[in-house]
From TrEMBL:
Classification of source organism: Archaea, Methanobacteriati, Methanobacteriota, Stenosarchaea group, Halobacteria
The record's note on its domains: The N-terminal domain determines nucleotide recognition and specific binding, while the C-terminal domain determines the specific binding to the target protein.
Record organism: Halohasta litchfieldiae
Stated name of the protein: Probable molybdenum cofactor guanylyltransferase
Keywords in alphabetical order: Cytoplasm, GTP-binding, Magnesium, Metal-binding, Molybdenum cofactor biosynthesis, Nucleotide-binding, Nucleotidyltransferase, Transferase
Localization annotation: Cytoplasm
GO molecular function: GTP binding; metal ion binding; molybdenum cofactor guanylyltransferase activity
InterPro entries referenced in this protein's UniProt entry, alphabetically: MobA-like_NTP_Trfase, Molybde_CF_guanTrfase, Nucleotide-diphossugar_trans
Enzyme nomenclature, EC number: 2.7.7.77
GO (cellular component) term, any one: cytoplasm
Length: 212
């Protein structure tokens, strides 16, 4: 269910959405919502949204109802729609399906709120690779990376439903069902710094990025 702020309206559809998944409970960040953890003066969520914004025509943040107000304050500099899961805590696959249902764009870039180093230029590259396909993902460090991904919105919604019908709530199963184009690792490394794939899962991970 979409919950726009009074001063924010959905952008006109010109083909590209950016979906940020931020509804997790952040159990390994017990003192702060991970999305709001500070990195170089801005939250992780702010970094991710700021990176995605230049590559897309609309921004959608999937979150819990109790996160929405503080996220809106944090992202006041951006034109963002907030999409709240009707039933919280069912995992990122449900969050993705909820967000996909709220856009009429043809393709969407999908990232979690804890990947602050993905550049917009690499998302542009994935959008180009996804054209006329169900999507595009990267192979890195010998395996297919579920994020960042660019997906065909209708194909991705169908893949979410199929994965859920099979009893899975894993993003990896969704990617398998979607069967997107996989960019070879040598090509990935030619286009983006390996730091782009760093996830911030713990306070130690965050400290490592700060010290880098």
């Amino acid at each position: 269910m979409s919950e726009d702020s009074p001063t924010q309206q959905p952008a006109a559809d010109t083909g590209r959405a950016g979906i940020i998944l931020a509804g997790g409970r952040s159990t390994r960040f017990p003192t702060v919502d991970k999305a709001l953890a500070p990195l170089n003066g801005q939250s992780l969520l702010h970094h991710v949204v700021g990176a995605v914004d230049p590559a897309v025509d609309e921004l959608i943040v999937n979150c819990r109802r109790d996160q929405r107000e503080v996220f809106a304050e944090e992202l006041s500099a951006f034109r963002v729609r907030f999409v709240v899961d009707q039933i919280p805590d069912r995992g990122p696959l449900v969050g993705l399906r909820t967000a996909l249902a709220e856009t009429s764009s043809t393709y969407a870039a999908v990232l979690p709120c804890d990947m602050p180093s993905v550049p917009a230029a690499f998302l542009d590259f994935l959008f180009a690779r996804a054209r006329n396909r169900t999507g595009a993902v990267a192979r890195f460090e010998g395996r297919i990376q579920p994020f960042p991904a660019v997906v065909h919105v209708r194909a991705a919604a169908a893949a979410c439903r199929e994965a859920e019908a099979a009893g899975s709530d894993r993003i990896e199963e969704f990617v398998s069902v979607l069967d997107p184009h996989t960019v070879p690792e040598r090509v990935v490394r030619a286009h983006v710094d390996p730091e782009a794939f760093r996830n911030i899962n713990t306070h130690d991970d965050l400290a490592a990025v700060r010290d880098a």
